[in-house]
Design goal:
Chain A is α/β, with parallel strands linked by helices and about 700 residues long. Helix content of chain A is about 60%, strand content about 5%. Chain B has a five-stranded antiparallel β-sheet. Classes of the chains: A alpha/beta (about 700), B mainly beta (about 70).
Chain lengths: ~700, ~70
């Protein structure tokens, strides 16, 4: 018979849980060197031996079982409730050996809950460099649980760990603190009320539940008052007696190998990277380099993708018989896909940098140096990491904000994250920027595209700060705010961790965006090629009449081409898509947008990157060009049928840029905000706020520039 | 004196943590009477600060550091 063992990975933030999870399951989990990377439980399955299946749960790191933030609450909820379906049979507690004392505090709490545990001792190499070694057997016998030395990043000790899981040795669960100073009657009453047999688990749960405003919490508080139980005093004594036990255990098993230590590398690096004067400049310089790299490193692969799609499209066009399917594939799907996939290299470069900065441990430093700056805006240093990863994608960043303890600061951070320019805006920005600045333009050693792009990101960040300040005035909170964060030691980046992050993110972009783009492209193509019969017929018959005039003229070829172009443009205008664009045109004309942009605004409502695909589809339906890399030139040649001036003036392009920078055109963001804030209200407020901001700012920009 | 008055690179020993909102959280994080601290980094604008507490580096705001009483060693 197959045995299923549910195992939870528990430990302090940044102790290597996710690395161990990856090593055990081989799954591609995002690992980084920033406390709080895992903010939601993740499950994976691993098989050991012939008939044992391990269900492994990776839990967010926490410092204690009295949770202070939303991510810590996830861990607490799994461990506290024995009837929970994911309640573990066994906890693998991962401890950072270079900081064992503090790590063991949570370990003793978990053991006292009555969950069998084994201790995986990670980062022994770091401890050794600081002159500290541990006698594993001694530690194991003092703590009363099996101890396995591992190196999660280098994946050593994993086999021994699995062997221990296989072995039939009875799972021990150790007891640490005694509750002899607590009134037994109180414990009995609390245990009855909370339905827990283990007294520590009952009391601990009662203390956490007392803060909530529920029927149960009233009864708990009532019991506490009757027995004059001082919760703070109890918690204080609990921590001290735990540390007292831990001190003894650590002292017994610790071997100090060297006393005169050189200053650690982390210390030296931090002296520079968090320097009072250089720290900020280094951070800004680094950001600047990233934007330069996003453009210059990705130029060649982008060219390849572009050429590849042009070839594929021509191949399909010439191979398949002409007709509806051919048009649908080339003008609809391929045009839409190539418009967006061409930007994949840029997105990969951006994700690569963010992944490396997280993996080596720099992101925590950014939180440290930015805390003071974020404070007046109702956020704290922990907000900066979600904001920066918001440049990649808002959805995981909004989840990452769970590590912010203060509810108001977390809410503000969630509300402004989508103003950070995410990677989906990158294609839109690139297309629009390249419309008025040649690719090759340089300013000194810098690529001008990169500079303008960085300006767009700065505008996004500035808008996020200003909006945060506005939200701060309206959101009330009595909760105290503080900034307590561990700065982990720097680590060499591990290629496997970074590659798995890249693979996951790029994959999500290709498949996530790809699905929407294909669906939208198909619908759009149908809408753009069909229309109300009488209008479409009117265009066709007008075309037939003009064709008669051309028949006898000399330069038939050229005239025919011009006429076809004109016909296609008129057909698009007569189509359903065109009709819709015309319908909303009055509302967007003050922003400098015509009806074609109107169509793109509609299609990109669910996902903003669809803008580029829509433009490709619209211009390949209306255009005569076979070549797909010409959306830009087609857009530039476009003239306004009423004024005769180019449709895309500088004013229009800037207005569009600002609109896309501020508008919340992303359904996934709306959904995750609703989930994370627990209320549709905030998602709605955010959507309305950003739409008004986008419309107002675009209006201002267009009216000022035109 | 308190932790907010420590200079860069100075070593001290924690003597007392004032009862406040953050006290229990600080205890949990290993900021305990008897632990040694070293002021390692000061962020731009002088706030927050990063201190070695026991075996790891913790950053906290100056305002909260003022609740941690220390003795120079």
């Amino acid at each position: 018979m197959e045995r299923l063992i549910t195992i939870a990975l528990v430990g302090n933030p940044n102790c290597g849980k996710t690395s161990l999870f990856n090593a055990l399951t081989g799954m591609n989990q995002k690992v980084s060197n920033f406390p709080g990377t895992t903010v939601e439980k993740k499950m994976g399955v691993s098989r050991i031996g012939a008939n044992v299946k391990l269900q492994i749960i990776d839990l967010p790191g926490t410092y204690s079982l009295y949770p202070k933030s939303a991510d810590e609450l996830v861990t607490y909820e799994i461990l506290r409730n024995k009837s929970e379906t994911n309640f573990p049979d066994l906890v693998i507690f991962i401890a950072d050996a270079s900081n064992l004392k503090r790590n063991l505090l949570l370990f003793t709490q978990v053991c006292d809950l009555g969950v069998p545990a084994i201790l995986a001792l990670n980062m022994l190499d770091v401890a050794e460099r600081r002159g500290i070694k541990y006698n594993i057997e001694e530690l194991s016998s003092t703590l009363g649980v099996p101890v396995i030395p591992i190196n999660a990043r280098k994946r050593t000790g994993i086999i021994q760990l699995k062997q221990l899981l296989l072995s039939e040795q009875p799972r021990m669960n150790a007891d640490f603190i005694s509750l002899e100073n607590v009134e037994p009657q109180l414990l009995a009453e609390i245990s009855r009320l909370t339905d827990k047999r283990n007294h520590y688990a009952a009391l601990q749960y009662a203390i956490n539940a007392a803060d909530l405003l529920s029927e149960k919490s009233k009864r708990i508080i009532d019991i506490f008052e009757r027995y004059k139980f001082n919760v703070r005093k109890f918690q204080e004594e609990e921590i001290f007696s735990r540390y007292h036990l831990i001190d003894n255990a650590v002292k017994k098993s610790r071997i100090i190998t060297t006393h005169n230590l050189k200053a650690s590398l982390t210390k030296k690096i931090d002296a520079v990277l968090t320097h009072r004067f250089f720290g900020l400049s280094i951070f800004l310089g680094l950001m600047f380099l990233i934007f330069q790299a996003v453009f210059s490193w990705s130029a060649y692969p982008m060219d390849l993708v572009e050429k590849g799609f042009a070839w594929l499209s021509n191949y399909v066009k010439n191979t398949l018989p002409a007709g509806v399917l051919n048009d649908l594939l080339t003008q609809g799907i391929l045009a839409g896909l190539s418009g967006v996939l061409v930007f994949l290299p840029q997105i990969i470069v951006l994700f690569l940098f963010i992944a490396i900065l997280e993996d080596i441990g720099y992101m925590a430093r950014v939180g440290f140096i930015m805390d003071r700056i974020m404070r007046p805006f109702g956020m704290n240093g922990k907000s900066i990491v979600p904001l920066i990863s918001g440049m990649a994608c808002a959805v995981p960043s909004i989840m990452a904000s769970r590590s912010i303890e203060n509810k108001k600061e977390r809410l503000i951070t969630i509300l402004v994250i989508p103003l950070m320019s995410c990677s989906a805006r990158l294609p839109v920005y690139t297309l629009l920027i390249s419309m008025f600045i040649p690719d090759s333009a340089t300013w000194g050693p810098f690529n001008v595209h990169g500079l303008v792009l960085m300006l767009m990101y700065i505008i996004g960040f500035a808008a996020a700060l200003v909006s945060a300040w506005i939200f701060k005035q309206f959101i009330k909170s009595v909760q105290k705010n503080y900034f307590l964060m561990e700065l982990p030691g720097y680590k060499m980046p591990v290629a496997a961790n970074i590659l798995s992050t890249l693979y996951e993110k790029a994959g999500a972009f290709v498949f996530g965006a790809g699905k929407i783009i294909i669906a939208v492209s198909v619908i759009l193509w149908v809408m753009a090629s069909t229309g109300p019969r009488e209008k479409m017929n009117a265009v066709s018959s007008a075309y037939q009449q003009q064709l008669i005039f051309i028949k006898d003229s000399g330069n038939k070829e050229v005239l025919l081409k011009q006429l076809t172009f004109k016909k296609n443009a008129q057909m698009l205008e007569a189509s359903y898509a065109g009709q819709f664009g015309k319908f909303i045109e009055p509302a967007i004309r003050p922003l400098g947008f015509d009806w074609k942009i109107g169509i793109a605004l509609l299609t990109s409502l669910a996902a903003r990157e669809v803008f580029v695909g829509t433009m490709s589809t619209i211009y390949s339906v209306s255009g005569t060009e076979d070549n797909l890399d010409s959306i830009r030139s087609a857009m530039l040649q476009e003239t306004n049928s009423q004024t005769g001036k180019p449709s895309y003036s500088i004013a229009t392009v800037f207005s569009l840029l600002i609109f896309y920078a501020f508008a919340l055109q992303c359904m996934s963001t709306v959904a995750i905000v609703k989930k994370e804030t627990g209320a549709a209200k905030w998602a709605l407020i955010q959507f309305v706020y950003m739409t008004v901001l986008a419309y107002g700012s675009s209006l201002l920009v267009y009216q000022l520039l035109s | 004196m308190n932790l907010s008055e420590l200079h860069l690179g100075e070593h001290a020993c924690i003597t007392h943590v004032k009862d406040g909102d953050l006290m229990l959280k600080l205890f949990e994080m290993g900021v305990l009477p008897g632990e040694n601290v070293i002021l390692e980094n000061i962020a731009p604008f002088g706030d927050p600060i990063a201190v070695m507490v026991g075996e790891y580096k913790l950053c906290l705001r100056v305002r909260d550091a003022a609740n941690i009483e220390i003795e120079l060693i």
